[in-house]
Amino acid sequence: MSDNSSMVKTLLNELNQDVAHYQELVAQLKQQHVLLVNRDNQALIGHNQQLQSLMALLNQHATNRHTILTRLGVTANNEGMQKLLSKLPQQVQQKGMMLWQKLYDLTLTCQELNNTNGRLLAQQKQLIDRLLKPEQQYCYGPGE
C-alpha cells in the first residue's frame, strides 16, 4: 500500500471515528444542559472533565486531518476534502462524502447546543449577580 493510500485510509477511518465522537459530544452537551438547569455543580465538574478529554481527542483528529490533507497536496479545508474525496473510487467516495457531511452536520448541532448552554450560563450569572450585588442594579446609583 502506498503512503498516499495509507494516509487516505487513516483519514477515512478517523472521519468515521469522529462521527461517533461528535455523536457522543452531542449527548454530552445535552447532559451538560440538564446539569446546568439543575445547577448540579458537583456533577458538572466531572462532566466537564469528560468533555475536555473528548474535545482533546477531536482536536487531535482535526490536527491529523489537516496534516494529511496538506501532505496529500490539497488545502486543509472543506474544499480540499471535497477535492480529495472526488478523486477516490466511487464506493469509497460515496462513503467519504457521507461521513464528511455527517461530521459537518454534527458540528453544527454541537455549536448550537454549546451556544444554548452558554446563554444559560450567562443568564444564571446575571441572576446570581443581581442576588449578590443588588447595588449594581441601578444605572445611576441608589436614590438620594
From TrEMBL:
Family to which this protein belongs: Belongs to the FlgN family.
Protein name: Flagellar protein FlgN
Function: Required for the efficient initiation of filament assembly.
Organism: Photobacterium swingsii
GO terms, biological process: bacterial-type flagellum assembly
Keywords: Bacterial flagellum biogenesis, Cell projection, Cilium, Flagellum
Database matches in SUPFAM superfamilies: FlgN-like
